[in-house]
Amino acid sequence: MKLTELFAQAKELRAFASAIIANAEGAKRGLNAEEEKRLSDVTSQLKSVDDAIDKELRSPVNAPAIPEAREIRAEGKPAFISLRTALDAMAGNREARAMMETRALASSVAGIPKFVEEILEAVAESNPMRDLASVYTFPGDATVPVPGLATAAFGAEGATITPADPSVTNVALSVWNLQGGITVNDATMEDDFFNIKALIASAAGGKMGEVEGTAMLDTGAGGSQPQGLFNHAIDYLTATAGTFVKADLNGFLNSVETKWLRRGNLKLILSPAVLAQVINLKDNTGWLEVDTKAKTIQGVPYVLTSLAPAWAVTANFKVMALGDFKRGYAIGQRTSDMGAIKTKIVPSATAFASNVLFNERIDGRIVDAAAFKILAIK
Questions:
Q1: 96 close to 89: Cβ distance less than 8 angstroms
Q2: pLDDT in tens, 265-305
Q3: Would you say residue 87 lies in a domain?
Q4: Domain boundary residue among 77, 93, 119?
Q5: Which residue range forms the structural domain that includes residue 7?
Q6: Residue 322 pLDDT > 90, yes or no?
Q7: 20 to 30 Å CA-CA from 75: which of 6, 191, 296, 347?
Q8: What is the pLDDT of residue 69?
């Protein structure tokens, strides 16, 4: 069968599937048993036709005509789900959701969670705390239990030990509202040949992650946004006012309590500007050991992020943080049946364009301040 005939058949099957759904929605009811069977049959036929199209497009016979085939494909069988369809589906539009399911495209399988996943991946790439901290997903407000230490001691054979009941501190995680948005022209909104969703997810998620990370790492006061790690009290000062030398860093690295912290979880967090200063630290015994390939300072892994405080030689400037941030910091993200990110399309003041808004409800808190320390200049 020729490609044009296959595309025409696929288009007809999609129209038929949409008509079944529209008929039920017009009557303000769900699909009856007969309609469900018909829709299932159409979906199965559509998958077979789409597989045949893919096979034909990969055929050497069609290779010289790929540009033309791609053009036909864009008209008959979209390569991707359009951004508008995906957003409508996320908003609960049944027809849009059914369209994503019945197209049987590899890119649209579980299209809604995949789009949300792409946004969250972009958020995580821009906010290192997503990897460093413990992340909890929950439907509402939550508390994170932080247990104290157990009892252990050496004793004579047969001696008894009296276990202590370690206190458990419950730290409340609220849900603060973080919104992002991007203006998209209508032609782009309807484009189903290019993967517009991935581009939008990267742009919106990247910016939301930057705002998230700035609050969680640096500026967050904890009132209407997450609590900033570097907003925590200073734990260790350099020996001399206005200076930062090798001995200061070595002393800081040895100051963190490691009796109960898992050593493999210890990490440093610092900015590129601070790393540039660290690399130049030396004394009469030689240079500080910094491995920029393995990303370690004196053997301790470090995480480099521009969201941490930049370098400044001022009193109380917070140079870096060191600790087990899985234990010390918790992120709480509210989710729903549509995932952790909600979206909405609203009219834009720009002609022939719409504003795509993204919303997440999230919090970040220091749950165990003993799990990390902050180094600052005296």
A1: yes
A2: 889 999 999 999 999 888 888 888 999 889 999 989 999 99
A3: no
A4: 77
A5: 3-77
A6: yes
A7: 347
A8: 36
Total number of domains constituting the chain? 2
Q: E strands along the chain, which residues?
A: 134-138, 142-147, 168-173, 176-185, 236-237, 267-270, 282-283, 286-287, 290-291, 296-297, 300-304, 318-323, 329-334, 342-347, 353-366, 372-376
Q: How far is CA 341 from CA 69, 102, 230, in A?
A: 36, 24, 27
Query: Does residue 146 have a pLDDT over 70?
Result: no
Q: What are phi and psi of 288, to 5 degrees?
A: -65, 145
What is the separation of C-alpha 23 from the centre of its chain, rounded to a whole number of angstroms? 39
219 φ, ψ (degrees, to nearest 5): -95, -10
What does the alpha-carbon distance between residue 98 and residue 39 come to, in Å, rounded to a whole number? Answer: 10
Q: Are residues 334 and 221 in the same domain?
A: yes
**Tokens standing for residue 252:** 């800081």
Structural domain contains residue 86? no
Query: pLDDT digit string (tens) for 21-56?
Result: 877 777 787 888 887 888 888 888 878 877 776 666
Contact 297, 278 (CB under 8 A): yes
Stated as kind and residue range, the H or E segment containing 40 is helix 33-58
Task: Tell me whether residue 66 is in a domain.
Answer: yes
Burial code (b: 16+ CB inside 10 Å, e: under 16) for 151-181 equals eeeeeeeeeeeeeeeeeeeeeebbbbebebb
**Same domain flag for 9 and 126:** no
Q: Does 218 fall in a domain? A: yes
